[in-house]
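Title: [Solved] Thiamine-monophosphate kinase 3D structure

Original question kept below for reference.
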Amino acid sequence: MALGEFALIDRFFRRPVQRAALGVGDDCALLRVRPGLQLAVSTDLLVEGRHFLSTVDPARLGHKALAVNLSDLAASGAEPLAFTLSLALPRADEAFLAPFAQGLLALADKHGIELVGGDTTAGPLTIGITVFGEVPPGEALLRSGARPGDALWVSGTLGDARLALEAFRGTVALAGEGFEQARRAMETPTPRVALGRALRGVASAAIDLSDGLLGDLGHVLARSGVGAELDEAALPRSPLLAAQPAALQRTCLLAGGDDYELLFSAPEAHESGVRAAGAAAGVALTRIGRVTAEPGLVVRDAQARALDLRGWRGFDHFATA
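Solution (posted by the thread starter after getting help):
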């Protein structure tokens, strides 16, 4: 028997809710927001062939679909609460749906976020998720708070996801565990939710790195009305990426995208607080530059020479080549 829309929802996505007042199965979900908190909302759309390859493991795809949204909550310092899922499928294929739901809901359980509704339809494989989180008033991390003199920090390491993409494109050869490491970085990113919460009251501005360091830092600089200087040699990279040619490293680090690490600014006086936040979240943090009063972005190489950034930019879905 063919799997219908409502049977699909019941089998793979209906779960009892613990924190929400009402979840899947009615015209609207009802969220119970704790008194004195604000609701943080974000949404992302993933399209096959644009955001992920058709060969991706469905469980990893389910993980990533939620992870990129949780990363937005992390960048705001919000506590995950609930999410909705809209899913377009070429066909109701149980062999895809079972592992997809498993990967999605395993990450949801890890972060205590509940699936409370959504929609399904027939069409090209497309995943839309909207997340809801809670944050105390005035404590959300914003893109607009960076100030001259602030230090710039980043979590984790950068560039492995772009390295995986280059391997899939055939422009770089990766074998064995090296390929698997890069592929895991691209397909199963770790949202830094605990770090985002720990940075409330410590960081002055924050953003998650989805479209590349240059592009995403550019958003912070534009919203804050400031500039920045970066130290290319300080950018954290894995041993796998460090073993690649210098030009490829630069591309992956500055314009790679899909890292889903947190980039944030913080006053010099907050350095101990920054390091404490990283330790509390169990995440390595690296100081990579500083915020300047003069608009614009300067990236200096190991010899302190300014790189020519003409032609470099973050990922833009509608930019022409």
